[in-house]
Task: inverse folding
């Protein structure tokens, strides 16, 4: 049994109230037709810092004692948790130290620094993240906030699906992306209480399929080199999220890089909203007909909108057109 409960999620909702946005739920007739189902999107791309991560980060910082906050907070993150923790720390008036892989999305690095955090680069590996973060922790004495395995982070992430269910009602299936598993874990715990007959399914890039293999093999897979455009999903599960997913999640489905790009483009074109590749991972199974059953109601958490638009706008520049 997991150590995170429904009561923890309720407490998180109280802490983040007035700070996190209650993001909208949207639907698309065109995507409903492609999916063969009624789909409702929870748009966390409109959340503060551009992703659901602000919920868990703020809940955690707000839960720290004054003594724990005295030296600030630190974390390792490819971008969205980095921005979220940086803002949460700024709102509490404490420093934040963020370890980011060398191949992180430049827009996410810039935004993290813009929220006042000190960014420290590290090798783009699981080991590189942890070794660099450990050094920063020793040097600063800051409190570590894990991007997905921290119970208070997981509880905060679970608040998004609570709002989705309150706003849109019952669902047959709820889909979320899975990288480290914090969002999927929080979603599955909340859904088990609010809609116990609803299937919760994680969606993962085939090029970073550690969660799929961990659940299939019954052991935690952490040593791997991810190869996916979905930079927010390159991290492995933690022991807490692994245990929660085994208990509450129906299954993990895999999607290809081509399907991720197609899903992102489809949402941009049909819904006129910007989502990042990690969000598109939860849309991709719908577009290939994975859940095309008559009358099915599906909820999808669009995890974020921090896409790297540099290449897109460079292509539109007068110099490129010349």
Result:
């Amino acid at each position: 049994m997991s150590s995170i409960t429904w009561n923890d999620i309720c407490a998180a909702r109280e802490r983040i109230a007035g700070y996190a946005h209650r993001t909208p739920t949207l639907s698309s007739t065109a995507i409903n037709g492609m999916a063969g189902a009624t789909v409702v999107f929870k748009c966390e791309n409109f959340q503060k810092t551009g992703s659901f991560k602000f919920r868990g980060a703020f809940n955690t910082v707000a839960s720290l004692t004054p003594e724990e906050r005295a030296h600030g907070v630190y974390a390792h993150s490819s971008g969205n948790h980095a921005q979220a923790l940086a803002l949460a720390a700024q709102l509490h008036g404490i420093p934040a130290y963020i370890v980011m892989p060398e191949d992180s999305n430049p827009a996410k690095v810039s935004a993290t620094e813009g929220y006042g955090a000190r960014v420290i680069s590290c090798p783009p590996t699981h080991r590189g993240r942890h070794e660099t973060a450990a050094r920063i922790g020793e040097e600063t004495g800051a409190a570590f906030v894990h991007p997905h395995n921290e119970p208070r982070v997981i509880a905060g992430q679970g608040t998004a699906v609570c709002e989705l269910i309150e706003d849109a009602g019952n669902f047959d299936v709820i889909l979320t992306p899975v990288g480290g598993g914090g969002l999927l874990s929080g979603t599955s715990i909340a859904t088990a209480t609010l809609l116990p007959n609803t299937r919760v399914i994680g969606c993962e890039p085939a090029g970073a399929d550690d969660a799929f293999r961990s659940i299939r093999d019954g052991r935690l897979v952490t040593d791997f080199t991810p190869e996916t455009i979905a930079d927010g999903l390159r991290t492995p599960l933690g022991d807490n999220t692994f245990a929660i997913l085994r208990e509450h999640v129906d299954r993990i489905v895999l999607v290809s890089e081509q399907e991720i790009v197609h899903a992102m483009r489809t949402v941009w074109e049909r819904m006129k909203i910007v989502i990042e590749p990690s969000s598109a991972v939860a849309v991709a199974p719908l577009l290939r007909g994975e859940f095309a059953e008559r009358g099915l109601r599906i909820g999808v958490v669009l995890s974020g909108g921090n896409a790297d638009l540099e290449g897109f706008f460079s292509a539109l520049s007068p110099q490129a057109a010349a």
